[in-house]
Amino acid sequence: MRKYFGRKLIIYLLTFFLAVTIDWMIPRFMPGDPVQNMLARVSASTNATAMAQLYEYYSHLFGLDVPLWQQYLNFWKSLFQGDLGISVYLFPTPVAAVLKRAVPYDMALLLPAVLLGWYTGNKFGALAARSKWLDNTISPLSYIITATPYMWLGILLAWFFGIVLGVFPIAGAYSFRLSPTLSWTFIGDVLLHWLLPFVSIFIVEFGGWAIGMRNMIIYELESDYSHYLEALGASKKLIRRYAFNNGVLPQITGLALKLGVVVAGALVTEVVFSYPGIGYLLLAAIQNQDYFLIQGCFLFIIFGVLIANFGIDIVYVLVDPRTRRGMTGESA
Amino acid sequence: MSLQIENLTVHYQTLRGDVHALESSTFNVRDGEIMGLAGESGCGKTTLAHALIALAPPMKFVGGRVLLDGEEMPIWDTEKMNDFRFQKISIIPQYAMNAMNPIRKIGKMVEELLKSKKVNPKSVMADMNMKLDLVKLPHEVLGMYPIELSGGMKQRMVMVISTLLNPSLLIADEITSALDVASQKAVAEMLVMFRDQGCCKSAIVITHDISILYQIADTIMIMYAGQLAEKAATKTIINSPRHPYTKLLISSLPQIGVKYVENQLTGIPGKPPLLLHPPEGCCFRERCPVAFEQCSQVPPFIEIDKDHYVACWREVGSNA
Amino acid sequence: MKNQKKKNEFLYFALRNKKLLIGTSVILIFLVLAIIGPSLTKNEPFDYANPLGPQPPSSEYWFGTTFFGQDVFSQFVHGLRATFFVGAIGGGIGTLLGMLIGFVAGYRGGVVDEILNAITNIVLVIPTLAVLLIIAAYLEVRSIFTECIFIGLTAWPWVARAIRAQTFSLRTRDFVDLARMSGMKSSRIIFSEIAPNMMSYLLLAFILQFGGAILFAATLDFIGLGPTNAISLGLMMQYSVLWGALQLGTWWWFIPPGLAITLIVGALYSMNVGLDENFNPKLREL
Q1: What is residue C282's DSSP assignment?
Q2: B194 within 8 A of B200, measured Cβ to Cβ
Q3: Are C274 and C19 in contact (CB under 8 A)?
Q4: What's the rounded mean pLDDT across residues C241-266?
Q5: Is the model's pTM score more than 0.80?
Q6: Chain A neighbors (3+ CB pairs < 8 Å)
Q7: What is the ipTM of this complex?
């Protein structure tokens, strides 16, 4: 088991290192000068010397006036201090603060949608695998759902429930006329705004996992241990239960692999609903050429995905006894 | 009588038609008898075993009766058969090494299996421990996962599980095929021990290795292309077989100590017929050295001597 | 004689497989539409054809017009072409790259395998959209082909994994050992013994990549990182949302593109399952 985790940790550390480097590198090697852009937007002064002074001041402030390699080291240093720089787009708010505001919305959207989608999708897939009738109705539907682009489902839901029926709001995390308080109206309003984006992501996740689980169960029902239990006359319930327990394992690793896709899906959904999560923020940062915010968002996403991966790896070890005992016994 | 089979016919459904895998088989197995079931690949022995315990598509029940201890077994009805499985009839499968759920501790799996059959696990505990001792497995094995056992250990564990409820009939499907010679001996001896200790009343041992059967079987039944050829006491089959196929089969067995240069290995020329459209009459006709016109009709499987059954027109006359 | 029988058996099951039939038909319909569609309309996608602005579908404008009075049908069929192009090329690049890496890793084993495996895992873990966002955002001009390359460069790990696993299992099969023992050259073994067995996997992998590429392209297009000088189904959706289609209720602008993508990708998945059943006799329903 130590070997298992050791390997995984190395990969994650490597990935993190690579990601941070890419993160730092790309904005700096792309055309465009962030300080210039920022100055161009904020000030209207045509005084050349004043502009030059401002430019120097901000370059220093952002740490852009030192040689590249020093910038790189500084970057790592401030990373460990939790300092992600100052946002250019939302100057003078520090990036960390901007991120902190956006994170709860992402968590509120992603965690329930992914976890619930995974759980119910698997349960449903298992059901479909044993009932021919259910299989013929649910499976084609699930394939269509998985084929649906996240954003289109979001648009459909927004249009139908938001505009046509007028039941749900389709922009923001809460109504603009309200300010955050711990009142029922506010919480209700937040939930109202949250529901459509959540459902949008949930449905697509559900479809995908249902199909996957159904196929896994069918595969497990053909295994030797299933046949043996049948030959010994075990109850169908027991056979199904074993098939499910075995079939759910690859679904767990599958979840780790799908995280990248889910993040992308959440991003577009946030765009459709103008929901102020990290994805939405990232887009705004790119459009406004805010170096530091881009870096911050990107880092946060990478970090989140790596942690989630690691968490899933831990869960997997707890659930599959074979990884604990290692392949030390003969298997034939 | 422990097991009575009457005119059992089972076909396999394929797109191109029915494969006549088992055709009108009639035979008995007594209490306490270990019957060896031997024949070439595709002769129908595995079909027979599976038909008795788990008849499922693409297998199709066509006709016949199966009686175990005088009670009719509804092998065509999967639901009703569940009452018989494990308690009255059990199987040690060919895939015994992979037969246990890989992510469940063995003891837990057995417990859940028993509970699902409405048997109290505690009532079988003492018996289980006794059987574990019989096969020389430590009791701790119940707390382990299948992956922690070696191949031989897994096989022995499956033998214990299959006989846990002391079934009347135990079917052993190629249990020695994947083992080395020493393990083969151990497993074969265990089987006899089980029968002697009452863990099962009678057994059908399926194999293509006749030499094993010579060691442990009381009777041997030879099958060919879905039809029964001969059934007799082991010594009779080996030393004085009557069916032409059996005679050729026995004579083609290599003997230890006899070199090829001295005595060439003989086989049986030709191939078994395809059972999609089986030939009329005796299936062995084309390869039989003593076939004649009468063979175009299916020979009856009749008793020509005490407990010696043969399906051959040549032998029918000698009974008179 | 035997090969003939095998091919016939394959076709026999293939033609009877509902999923395969339905999937292929849907794809063919859209393909035909993509090919002949643009010649059915006289308007270019970005022409300001209708002075009245957004209009619902009518006999003159089959899919209605956009906020700017552009012909939605024209945008649709041109967009279909782009979508198919990206799916094929992007998916193709991903499949080829994945096949190469997976195969080398599986066949060589050892250190080469460890390194390639590590690289595959790293690329798998990184949420590639985030990387692409940053890269694509800084490119002033993006063509469809650039988008294909992006997609190919990020989609290959899935294929690599599958091909690597399959290579592993094939490598130890008897017929490969036999070929090696009879002195066949390595490259010949690869081409004549291993490759044919991989064909079915590659076909399945390509179909999935095709669908995935279409979805991913739609995502990129939607958030504004699509090609800067073309029209695609994803771009249609982006424009429609950008220009208030939701509030104005111009549903004819965003429903057709999304529906088309859903149907095409769904058909591809259906083909995939159907082919899988075909290749694997155990899954066939009698």
Answers
A1: G
A2: yes
A3: yes
A4: 87
A5: yes
A6: B, C
A7: 0.89
